[in-house]
Amino acid sequence: MVARLKGRQEPSFSVVPRHARSEGVDACDLAAGYGMVPDRWQRTVVEGWLGVARNGLWSASDCGLAVPRQNGKNAVTEIFELHVTAVLGMKVLHTAHEVKTCRKHFIRMKAYFENAKYPELSDLVAYIRNTNGQEAIVLKNGGSIEFIARSKSSGRGYTADILVCDEAQELTDEQMEAIQPAISSAPSGNPMTIYAGTPTPPSSPGTVFDRIRRNAHSGKSKRLCWFEWGVGEIGDVSDRKRWADTNPSLGTRLIASVVESELQKMSPDGFARERLGWWNDEADSDTDIDLAAWKACLTEEPATEGPVAYAVKFSPDGRNVSLAACRRPDRGTGMKPHVELLEYKPMSYGTQWLADWLTAQGPDGLERWRMGLAIVIDGRVGSSTLVNQLVDAGVSKRVIRTPGSGQMVDATSMFEQGINEQSFTRIRQDALDNAVAHAKHRRIGSDGGFGYESSAENIDTTPVETVAYAYWAARTSRRHPGRKQRMVRLA
């Protein structure tokens, strides 16, 4: 079944300005003649990018492509750049986040013009500059491609018709301000900027690509051409149909067995971002949590010593389950409690994996639960099963907490107070950040107590409540395990 999977050629979302014709048809035919035969999806993108309006100018001044890795994104830019330089005689400034990425693209493009099989391309060459960091292909017809790695000052002093931003997910405002003026006086009078990349990861300082995408989805940019393959939620990352829907080259250049391997090695949110094209749309948030305060809780140096409280929360619809933890540092260390979402899985995985992990030997040689402050378990579906599995495995009932509505109120109010006062730390985690960005107060009782419910149909806020329980348990537990744990994350 896996081997028969074929990637979907139509984008999940696209915006293409109206145009009278497209240079993309000739561009794809040209590339095919030189051994780069485009897939149907690649042809669709190139034809959209190279749309020409009735006035002879590009119908789009900004063009973008967001597609998961290893699908053939670089081939799209190769097809595009070969045509606009060799046929149209335009000047291209090709930029990337890393020097090695620029160098690889230069070598691929240079191969077209140095191949003895293509004398007509070789005859076009005025010169090729191979100096590392200053690579360039300059043609006799006025066309050229110059290659630079982006920085806060790179791009100054260049003049081009077309700016190509590869690895666009890493593109920062500061870098954009340095390179964008390169096309402000385009010799052709017909400038264009290309953005190609994958969803911006939470650890990246890049802001531009995400903003361009939001402009595309808002429908406000009339001269923006955008193609995207991706999902709207993390969902079931093991669903192979979703793999095919978001990876157009699956079954050709992208091997399904490799994707299967990625699934085993990545976290669900990481797999959703890197392989399913999922974006964490925090800007589309509707939440009762103060996002500015939530961001202020971020740290790169969390507490690494101290006992840990665990929490498990089953979603109300029984579809998903979350596992979270909060480390309580020892007094006098100057460190704050640290919360993390350890796992977020569909219930198709069952509950035994939770029991196995909580009773497994930790980094200090003892079972995790023995060195834990508490294990909070909540949710109608799955809770009793997990409790029985833990007790059968030898876990003391004194460690297990099954909270009622009153404890939920205590946990969520303590959690939000902790956010507002920055009383704990956290790291960037897509699934948790996305849940926080859509967490609305769900009234509990008549005294102003609340839990959480989602402001969006496709967003599950279970991770927020799970982390809240872990923080509450760490703050209220009276247990004092004798040996410190040194690791929170799943091993």
From TrEMBL:
InterPro entries: P-loop_NTPase (IPR027417). This is Terminase.
